[in-house]
Design brief:
This protein has one domain: ACP-like (Non-ribosomal Peptide Synthetase Peptidyl Carrier Protein, Chain A), CATH 1.10.1200.10. Helices cover 52% and strands 0% of the residues. The chain contains five helices and no strands. It is globular.
């Protein structure tokens, strides 16, 4: 498995961080109008063309799903799917 995702799919069992990455990719799939390949390096705003309002909606969905709270300053630093996944893992560890 090369860590590349294209929309919603059923993934085999993976390590915990990859499971978060898969879930994040699935959550972002509806915003993938250009059908770019979703990877850790995919830029959420630029490549998926997600505007700032939608990004906050995505963050709120992630917070609800994983029972975490993103610090406001951290949100502005997240550019890629991988950074979002890593931040979720960091927040879950407390």
């Amino acid at each position: 498995m090369d860590g590349t995702f294209t929309g919603t799919h059923t993934a085999p069992p993976m390590t915990k961080p990859d499971t978060v990455l898969t879930t994040v990719c699935d959550m972002l799939a509806p915003f993938n109008r250009s059908q770019v390949t979703l990877t850790r390096d995919t830029k959420i705003a630029d490549e998926l063309e997600v505007d700032s309002v939608a990004i906050f909606d995505i963050i709120m969905d992630v917070e609800d799903r994983y029972d975490v709270t993103f610090p406001m300053e951290a949100i502005s630093e997240i550019e890629t799917i991988g950074q979002l996944s890593d931040m979720i893992e960091t927040l879950r560890r407390g």
